[in-house]
Amino acid sequence: MSADIVIGVDLGTTATKAVAFSAAGEEVASAARGYPLAEPHPGHAVQDPHLIWDAVLATVREVAEAVGAARVAGLSFSTAMHSVLGLDAALAPLTAVVTWADTRAAAQAERLRASAGGLALHRRTGTPIHPMSPLTKLMWFREQEPELRRRVAHWVGHKDWILHRLTGELVTEHSSASGSGLMDIHRLAWDDEALALAGLRPGQLPYLVPTRHVVGGLTPDAAAATGLPAGTPVVAGAGDGPLANLGVGAVRPGVAACSIGTSGALRVAVERPAVDPGGGVFCYALTEDRWVIGGAINNGGVTLDWVRAQIAEDPEVSASDLLDLAASVPAGSGGLLMLPYLLSERAPHWSSVARGAYVGLTRSHRREHLARAAVEGVCLQLALVLRSMRAAGLEIGEIRATGGVMQHPLWQHTLANAFGRPISLLEGQQGSGFGAALLGMDALGLVESVEVAAALLPVADVVAPNPREAAVYEALLPVFDELYDALLGTNQRLRRLAAHLPLAAASD
User: Fold this and answer.
1) Considering the entire predicted model, what is its pTM?
2) List of domains in the chain
3) Is the per-residue pLDDT at 314 higher than 90?
4) Which of 32, 265, 354, 477 suits a disulfide with 345, CB 3.0-4.6 Å?
């Protein structure tokens, strides 16, 4: 039997998932293993790299057994972006994996963002100045952990270390590097100013390679641990954001992908890197001739989950029932706006200072208004991202919407109305693991190009905006946007005060 399967390995924030796909886009087998996201101190969000390694071996081995090792043409990787891992001279970890969710570099990010060269750095590297950025994390290590920093010989992303364990090669691909804040996206080379800010030499970072680069073959040890033949090709892969676009077929210019799960994102593929003048969007690599521009938001479905848990009259009410209740309220929630910044926020303001708020609350508002305002707040935030993408000169022709919350009509219609344009819903939903597998198939010659993704994922339905409701959101959007700046000073003072205020009463 010929080798006709590629295993996409998705290194997620809380789990690794390995999924075997055929060149026809058929999912053949899958396996997942979870691991904790530790928060040992306020602002820290870290992981044990050895647990991630164990999860990779276990999931690949399970999938290889299910499909038959002889059918596996190769492995290709997706990864949660913006991670930092310090290695010693022998390439053994000296630090935990510092994830994108780690906010300890907030002060460094705010200082750099306010500096004269902050916006220019964003435009050059494609990465917003934000605590998620490896650049700001490395600045934090330089200032707060100088002794540890002196012991670190190499700074890498956690996928880079996994690829090294599998193949013996230490590289990073352009996609993950474009999310580091350390690479000039126009030259595809490490940026001298960024390296100086981080206090690094180029030799302390991995060698840069394209996303479709075959890093090497599995070493004998890795082959024995995964159940695959030694020498099985390993493709570098890319970041989970760009690969999510590939995973829903949004790879042609003008086709955007909007996903709303716990968090949310809006991204569009382009042929050349660019950032909007205001620095509201990111620009990350997918392939040598495909880039993804857009923005991620921290608060998606988690916002309604909070409303259901804390505000709903019946704590056992389902999310679907709460949405049905919210749908009984007209668009605009009776003049009530929710800033859904429960987990701070990213695009398009890229500030860790933001806090959630209800504005316009009156005695007449009921829980259904609060629930609808939460949905509207998430969709309006994504509409701000869309506005920044247009400011970058992008023309959006089609928006493909995916994610767990998109099963409910209220989310579908609110998103279409907030965007003021139709959204396409797909027959099936695949993620960045499918994107990784497709990228691997392209690298290994099993498909003609990554553009086959569009044909493999047909549109099942199109939700058109309601002109009257779209007009409501068009009028509310500038009000929603100006509230961020109006409350910025207040939120900065509140954050300083909150550091000294207990969240709960002390027990006796």
Assistant:
1) 0.93
2) 5-242 (3.30.420.40), 249-429+466-500 (3.30.420.40)
3) no
4) 354
